[in-house]
Amino acid sequence: MILAVEEIVRSLSGSWALLNRRAEGAARFDVDEQAFWRSFRAPLLAAPVFVIWLAADRAATNLPGEGGTLFERTDALAHTSFDFMALWLTLPLLSIALADVLRLRAQLAPFIIICNWSSVLAAAMLAVPALLLAIGWATPALAALFAVAAALLIMQMRWYAARITLGVTAGAAALLATGDALIGVGLLRLFV
Prior knowledge:
0% strand
């Protein structure tokens, strides 16, 4: 089950279309059982983002850039790992928890596939303020402002994906997107 370049391109372009509120983006994802399991490899594409987030954490805590490695501080590594995993896990787990209440069980697999792939785009969006902070082009406050703007775009993308994939009302989709943002708010701690 190797990720094919064609599937990566199609899935990321589908995520981009969903970000831009184009419903045809959902049709770009493979939604069979094999695609479901392959979508859990999508976080590997965002591995460089993890390194950027670690560098931003180091910059936010005013640690000197020289001496030592990004991976030596276990507290920063654990914190960044938690934030990285939260980006992928919060919305799917919240959807699973609410599946019976919202009667979503049948649509969960395609939605989780879309969540997994769109999280690569979300991670890239959050990497921009982290990179600006890490290289010294943004203060922690400015990076936090940029991260909030990125988070709002991500919420909108998650809301739209929930609307069209799960077929829920705008209010239910807003509940899912807001819950995802509130649970994943730890991401913003990278920049504060």
